[in-house]
Amino acid sequence: MCTVSFIPVGDKFFITSNRDEKVDRKIAQAPSIHEYSGVNFLFPKDTDAGGTWIVIKENGDAAVLLNGAFINHTAERPYRKSRGLILLDLLADEKPSAAFSKIDLKNIEPFTIVLFENKSLFEFRWDGVEKFGKQLSRQQAYIWSSATLYDGLTILKREKWFSEFLNQPIELSQQTIINFHRFTGDGDSHTDLRMYRGGLHQTVSITSIELNINQAKMQYLDLKDSKLFLNEAFFTIAVEK
Question: In terms of Cα–Cα distance, which of 59, 51, 158 is closest to 113?
Fold first, then answer.
């Protein structure tokens, strides 16, 4: 939930997330269909708190969560509810983009949410005190890095890698985008997109959503450690528009 990209390619849209977590955190459940608040969702499940960091709704809406808002913050635990459950609460609403302004975030840890709703793209941030939201162009590519793990210089370096990737003479597909998230960097394991920090934090998985006019597909790569690739799973759900 710490490095996210959004890339439009023709009539397709790709949302991809690297989940950077503490190495001693429990392994997440691979993506499957879950019912939450009477709505069907496709997501990998956080086995610690029961929520998720990336999700597709049965109508084709999708969202992804990053830890932190604008700057690194000091955690003030215990918090009232997991951010991964807040993500599901928002998506369960008929209009998640409107629900953000109404949802109670008191005593919720800061976060950033990227939302793709009815072919519109939004960015929402909660800094622990105030909400911030804006609509983004769905025809533009974006990359986000979590404020809790990456400083401004590192974020700029990653944006440069992203620009170089987009300008390469290669076909942009779900697989090439996943490869970007998996292999890009300059050899510094602290800042590479697939990161590893001295046995404390590492990239534990890469999840990618592919959306088009009538279908949503999720690809999930479960990474055991900074070197070993474990498994690959595909899930497809019909999107009724």
Answer: 51
